[in-house]
Amino acid sequence: MNALPCAGRVRHWRRVIACLVGWALLGAAHAAGHRLAIVDDGGSAVSLPAPPTRIVSLLPSLTEAVCVLGGCDRLIGVDRWSNWPDQVKKLPQLGSLDEAPLERIVALKPDLVLLAPSSRVAPRLRQLGLTVAELDARDLPGVEGLLQKVAALLGQPELATQRWAAMQRELQEAARSVPASARGHAVYVEISSAPHAAGESSYIGQMLSQQGARNIVPASLGPFPKLNPEFVVRARPALVIVGAGEVAALSRRPGWSAIPAVRDQRICALQPREMDALSRPGPRLPEAARVLANCLNRAWSVKP
Known about the structure:
By secondary structure, this protein is α/β, with parallel strands linked by helices.
């Protein structure tokens, strides 16, 4: 006597299953036809019909972001300064910024070109029919945004969230490694001999703040201002962080021999790999944070 109710239940569940399968197929079809789209840092809409398989990157931080987000094998060319991870050293080198050889880039047939907004070649590449995304970062939120946009273009937005969370944990660990004795001191970070400095509003300055340092370059001057050398003399930093190749010249700059950091030889001389990590606003920020923490610790004779 239960035959008809049972048959009714079977038909009901068949309809439910059929609907679920239909919804799944519809969702898959929608996803397959969904374009990957962002607005880049130049304000241009960038859209791709599918995840790119042939990428040219003309900025080291973007090259590193692509690789950390699982797209290293999609790179077919990079700028001359991209050197991490090691596998990108084998790729064709395509100049940098405004020196990019347009003909060579077009000949590689990329479906996406990544470069900095400061590069002037983006309009020309677009005129030549290439899809271009202009991306860069100056502060920590900007680095997070850069990772999110690169991941979105790669078709794997969730990876950016995961990677950024891991990076945040590592930045906090680096900050905790700096004891009280190495905190509160005035610090100057030079990123080029112009001199261009890392101000407190830059990602470098923000990491220094996390570690308890006092940046001599206020946010009002911008993230990476070009300074009058006299500014540094007046600010009297207790620690100077600079590329190793610039150390010998510091004491020869007018007035700099009287700066406490130079007088007391509290100078953190960064090797090329360390300088690379520090100067690239991308996925190697934890390495950069450890570089800064080690400088603070060494300057006041405290092991990290």
